[in-house]
Specification:
single chain, 428 residues, alpha/beta, Rossmann fold, Dihydrodipicolinate Reductase, domain 2, Alpha-Beta Plaits, 11-stranded mixed beta sheet, 6-stranded parallel beta sheet, 17 strands, elongated, binds NADPH dihydro-nicotinamide-adenine-dinucleotide phosphate, binds L-homoserine, NAD(P)-bd_dom_sf
Length: 428
């Protein structure tokens, strides 16, 4: 088979890893696909910038169209990020009959359906394994490995930056700002880390996983999102004391024909396998009706782990080229999307209240829970020499999101409650 020519859009953290793997593993790759793979052209923002990998200067261009419109290029690897302009590039590349590999979850969560439809029309491949959980092959697993099963639940730690921050805050008592800076220097964070810390990056990944797992077209707006920027060291210390670790957890649950997808800081029981997923590591727990519980673990971000998934997708494209089956394995969601109402979404909850330290306060608080049918698992009053108010820590039994919201709304107007300090979902 003739050599396969690749055009790269982006030579940052991931693009650098892609060049290293394609060049460093050339022999292995050729043995698997039966042809040479070479990176022929690379679009970057600034072609004059010093690079962390040796590339011929003549391959670099500042204009992505030079890559998209090059008739010699067979496969485009998109690792530059961005949404609207990048979508335009990729749709045109497909129009030109080029196959696509991308690590861009922002693009796939927002415009995946349109890009995949265009790919099918043009009989081209679009693979995006690296877009969720970096080096973990979870997308292929959901599409192929679980094609015979019905997924009930997907729970994931799918953002490396926030897991790195929470781990360092928990294990070393480090400050939020300090650790975020480290994660940026290590190439884990997005160019604007707001999408990491506010949960949007994880929400995009959960939309992609839920679409594949539930075979329904789940969109970003279907995911309820809360990030980690409000979590204090005090919250993390409380969690640990009670036997939990704080994690930013993505949860996609199926209840009959209905789905519910969320991303939120969650206190995960230390006995749950997800509690010991630390640092930049990601893990995705998948519960299928037939298979039962499974879990996938690995590096969720960073140059080489992410590039591993990208190049594995490239290998898949080239194998399909050899067989002449590109564009034939696209999965189109076929189930209707019905979202679960807040009355039907259940979880245990942790609530930390600052209250007046006087007789009858606890009775008023427990009365509100009783009124809205929320049963309590434990209530503890915690002395705090730095806080003149009493601190009440409550853990509920499983309660509906709607009932919990009613309780919290009621607390806002209860005079004895000085502050609803923190509320977290509890898992395990
Ligand atoms: P970087 O910011 O490190 O690199 C981006 C690259 O794209 C740079 O080489 C930059 O050029 C180039 N670029 C940006 N805008 C343009 C443009 N308009 N025209 C031409 N080139 C452009 O990003 P990452 O490598 O970290 O991420 C790339 C993609 O991979 C993103 O979609 C990200 O979400 C995804 N991803 C990243 C992971 C990670 O661990 N970093 C993990 C999984 C997915 P220049 O070098 O000149 O600035
Ligand atoms: N910023 C992302 C993360 C990169 O921290 O997980 C991997 O998608």
């Amino acid at each position: 088979m003739k050599p396969v020519k690749v055009g790269l859009l982006g030579l940052g953290t991931v693009g650098t890893g892609v060049v290293r793997i394609v060049e460093g593993n050339q022999e292995d790759l050729r043995s698997q696909v039966g042809s040479t793979i070479s990176v022929e052209k690379i679009a970057v923002k600034n072609p004059e910038k010093a690079r962390n990998v040796v590339v011929e200067q003549s391959k670099l261009t500042g204009d992505p169209w030079d890559v998209i419109n090059d008739p010699e290029i067979d496969v485009i690897i998109e690792v530059m990020g961005g949404v609207e302009k990048t979508k335009e590039y990729l749709l045109e590349a497909l129009e030109n009959g080029k196959h696509i590999v991308t690590a861009n979850k922002d693009l796939m969560a927002l415009h995946g359906a349109e890009i995949l439809a265009k790919a099918q029309e043009k009989q081209c491949d679009v693979f995006y394994e690296a877009s969720v959980a970096g080096g973990i092959p979870i997308i292929r697993t959901l599409i192929e490995g679980f094609s015979s099963d019905r997924i009930i639940r997907i729970m994931g730690i799918v953002n490396g930056t926030t897991n790195y921050i929470l781990t360092k805050m928990s294990q070393e008592g480090a400050s939020y700002e300090e650790v975020l800076k480290e994660a940026q220097e290590l190439g884990y964070a997005e160019s604007d880390p707001t999408s990491d810390v506010e949960g949007l990056d994880a929400a995009r990944k959960m939309a992609i996983l839920a679409t594949l797992g539930f075979r329904s077209n789940v969109e970003l707006g279907d995911v309820s999102v809360k990030g980690i920027s409000q979590i204090s060291s005090e919250d993390i210390a409380f969690a640990k004391k009670l036997g939990y670790e704080m994690k930013l957890l993505g949860i996609a649950e199926r209840n009959g024909d209905q789905f519910n997808i969320s991303v939120q800081p969650t206190m995960v029981s230390q006995s749950h396998p997800l509690a010991s997923v630390n640092g930049v590591f990601n893990a995705v727990y998948v519960h299928g009706e037939a298979v039962g519980e499974t879990m996938f673990y690995g590096a969720g971000a960073g140059e080489m782990p992410t590039a591993t998934s990208v190049v594995a997708d490239l290998v898949a494209v080239v194998k399909n080229l050899k067989l002449g089956v590109n564009g034939l394995k696209a999965i189109t969601p076929y189930k209707p999307k019905l979202l679960t109402s807040d009355e039907e979404v259940f979880s245990k909850n942790f609530i930390l209240l600052h209250v007046d330290d006087k007789a009858g306060v606890l009775a008023q608080i427990t009365q509100v829970f009783a009124e809205f049918g929320v049963s309590l698992a434990s209530v503890v009053q915690q002395p705090n020499e730095h806080n003149p108010n009493a601190e009440i820590i409550i853990i509920t039994h499983s309660a509906s999101k709607a009932s919990m919201q009613k309780v919290l709304n009621h607390f806002e107007s209860l005079e004895v409650i000085r502050r609803i300090k923190s509320v977290y979902r509890v898992e395990g």
